[in-house]
Specification:
Layout: E1 4-5, E2 11-13, E3 20-25, H1 31-38, E4 49-51, E5 57-59, E6 65-67, H2 81-84, E7 85-90, H3 104-121, E8 128-130, H4 131-134, H5 148-153, H6 172-182, H7 189-200, H8 211-221
Parallel strand pairs: 1-5, 3-7, 3-8, 4-7
Antiparallel strand pairs: 2-6, 4-5
Domain N-acetylmuramoyl-L-alanine amidase: 6-143
InterPro entries: Amidase/PGRP_sf (IPR036505), Amidase_domain (IPR002502), NAMLAA_amidase_2 (IPR051206), PGBD-like_sf (IPR036365), PGBDSf (IPR036366)
Keywords: Cell wall biogenesis/degradation, Hydrolase
């Protein structure tokens, strides 16, 4: 796996060690437009890698530098997510331009890339996240069609819990407290609930706290959540 070098000028110095991987979709009409924007000094955005639909991987920013992919974001107490993370942009038009499933070749390339980065920096599964996880009020990517289960089965992401589920019967306040403990910014309550559903219960994204959501979240807070078999 040798990435094609496509340098972007949009980076600066890190102030935190690398402890996270953030997955995005490009959300533009095509890959060429997205890559051009990520390399445009006027745009002031970038990522470390772009994965095209055919599985081609481009490296835009060296891993040791701070790419500008996360924006205003928060995860598990970290507010400068750019400094703590590697950003991977996955070419897909996104919800605004005809959101569609991710091709197998692209997903396989993402898996290889995530695996290498995870091992290199000893990143935990709970810190391999979606852009929507770290910025729920602003972002939906990589979205409900991204196959997180494939990554989870390879221990490259947390699984969707499916075993030994119990309903803790939390009210809204308790659920939000648990969601915050898990890692989400819950200042926008509805956005946080929707982001959680998009990631862990994508077949029903309605912003409602139901028994299934409570059971999934409780299981995720346990030491070894089990599922995605």
């Amino acid at each position: 796996m040798t990435p094609i070098e496509a340098p972007s000028p949009n980076f600066d110095e890190r102030t935190l060690p690398i402890t996270m991987i953030v997955l995005h979709y490009t959300g533009m009409v095509d890959g060429l437009s997205a890559i051009a924007r990520l390399r445009d000094p006027e745009a002031k955005v970038s990522a470390h890698y772009v994965v095209e639909e055919d599985g081609t991987i481009l490296r835009l920013v060296p891993e040791e530098k701070r790419a500008w992919h996360a924006g205003k974001s928060h995860w598990r107490g970290i507010t400068d997510v750019n400094s703590a993370s590697i950003g991977i942009e996955i070419v897909n038009p996104g919800h605004e331009f005809g959101y569609r499933p991710f091709p197998d070749a692209q997903v396989d390339a993402v898996i290889r890339l995530v695996h290498a980065i995870k091992d290199r920096y000893e990143i935990t599964r709970g810190n391999i996240v979606a852009h929507s996880d770290i910025a729920p009020a602003r972002k939906r990517d990589p979205g409900e069609l991204f196959p997180w289960g494939k990554l989870a089965r390879l221990r490259l992401a947390l699984p969707r819990p499916t075993r030994n589920l119990m309903d803790p019967m939390w009210g809204e306040a308790a659920f939000l407290l648990a969601l915050e403990r898990f890692g989400y910014d819950v200042s926008d309550k509805m956005a946080a609930i929707v982001a959680f559903q998009r990631r862990f219960r994508p077949e029903l994204i309605d912003g409602e706290i139901d028994a299934e959501c409570r059971m999934i979240l409780l299981a995720l807070l346990l030491p070894k959540p089990q599922g995605d078999d």
